[in-house]
């Protein structure tokens, strides 16, 4: 399960992005990870995969909030 390993590695990584392009790249990467985990979850129905997807979604929301900036 290399997708799960990639997701765990992404979760452990520091999330200090200096440029907008780094934020965009990481947002796209985490989106791909979540969608890949979702396909695995549909087959296995493993609650640990769902918990991992939820944690990644929180990280993705923080990145996107930073991208959009203040109104």
Verbal overview:
With 71 residues, the protein is mostly helical. It is 82% helix and 0% strand. The chain contains three helices and no strands. The longest helix has 25 residues, at 20-44.
Based on CA atoms alone, the radius of gyration comes out at 13 Å
Helix content: over 70%
- Characterize the overall form: elongated
Number of strands: 0
User: How do the helices and strands follow one another from N- to C-terminus?
Assistant: HHH
Task: State the secondary-structure class.
Answer: mainly alpha
Q: Averaging pLDDT over every residue, what do you get?
A: 90
- State which percent range the strand residues make up: under 5%
**Given the structure, what is the number of helices?**
3
Query: How would a textbook summarize the main sheet?
Result: none
**N/C terminus separation:** 41 Å
Low-confidence stretches: none
Summarize the structure.
Helices cover 82% and strands 0% of the residues.
Task: Sum up the structure in keywords.
3 helices; mainly alpha
Element layout with pairings:
Elements: H1 2-12, H2 20-44, H3 47-68
Helix pairs in contact: 1-2, 1-3, 2-3
């Amino acid at each position: 399960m290399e997708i799960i390993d990639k997701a765990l590695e992404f979760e452990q990584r520091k999330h200090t992005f200096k440029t907008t392009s780094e934020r965009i790249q990481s947002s796209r990467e985490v989106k791909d990870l979540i969608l890949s985990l979702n396909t695995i979850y549909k087959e296995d129905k493993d609650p640990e995969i769902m918990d991992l997807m939820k944690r990644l979604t929180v990280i993705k929301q923080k990145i996107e909030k930073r991208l959009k900036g203040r109104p």
